[in-house]
Amino acid sequence: MPDALPSTVVNTTTPTNANAETPDTVFTVRDLNVYYGDFRAVVDVGLEVYEREITAFIGPSGCGKSTVLRCFNRMNDLIDIARVEGTLLYHDIDLYHEDVDPVAVRRRIGMVFQKPNPFPKSIYDNVAFGPKIAGIGGDLDELVETSLKGAGLWEEVKDRLDKSALGLSGGQQQRLCIARAIAVQPDVLLMDEPCSALDPIATGTIEELMREMKNQYTIVIVTHNMQQAARVSDRTAFFTAEADESTGQRRGKLVEYDDTGLIFSNPADKRTEAYVTGRFG
């Protein structure tokens, strides 16, 4: 049985062409169910996420897309009443095997949240915090600079690294959070509504950054903005919320998962078509 995540999963691998016929699989999800106590909130999700692509999760509120996203780095472990059942493989390793360390999972699979959440520290210390905790060696100054450049923020902050991160604009704070996430050298970035609190200009900056970053990272994004999913993602999963026949409670369900172009131009399921054309949701 595995006792660690694969050490070969680093950013120095040759990027996979997103248009290749057989991209490498990063996540394999089969029969994934998420419970909050006795309530099954997400039902029988199955999909694969591919390397060096942007995968978007879309759907109405309450459809389980953020809950599924948090399964990928075991963030649901932090909710006492949450329970995950089914299969979730990361490079063929069972993320929920008893020998897998959730902390190691979260280092390999970073996360950027809906609302920018910089630490009340300097810009420099925000980026340096993770590598220090993780014991990453090398030149810390160089790592901070590289991470800020990777997040498209270096030129804007290079002369005020000792200033509080709380003095940055909302868009800059979100890019700082991205820099903080990539500073620990992850393989995957999960983004939960990363632009919902930002203005259109800042949103455009983050979207362009995502397109650049997929050459180095696998990205999974949850978004309510269908236009955003259409603009930035390679593949899109549409989730919906359906009422349980016995209890009436609404449960998340994956309806359709395909190339983004097909989801928005020729979906296979009428529920997907109704959502992407604005007839519901």
Question: Explain this structure to me?
Answer:
By secondary structure, this protein is α/β, with parallel strands linked by helices. Helix content is 31%, strand content 26%. The chain has 10 helices and 10 strands. Strands 5-4-1-2-10-9-3-8-7-6 form a 10-stranded mixed sheet, with helices on both faces. The radius of gyration is 19 Å and the shape is globular. About 5% of the residues have low confidence.
- The overall pLDDT average reads 90
- Proportion of β residues? 25-35%
Largest beta-sheet details: 10 strands, mixed
Termini Cα gap: 43 Å
Question: What sort of overall outline do the alpha carbons produce when their principal axes are compared?
Answer: globular
Instruction: Name the structural class.
Output: alpha/beta
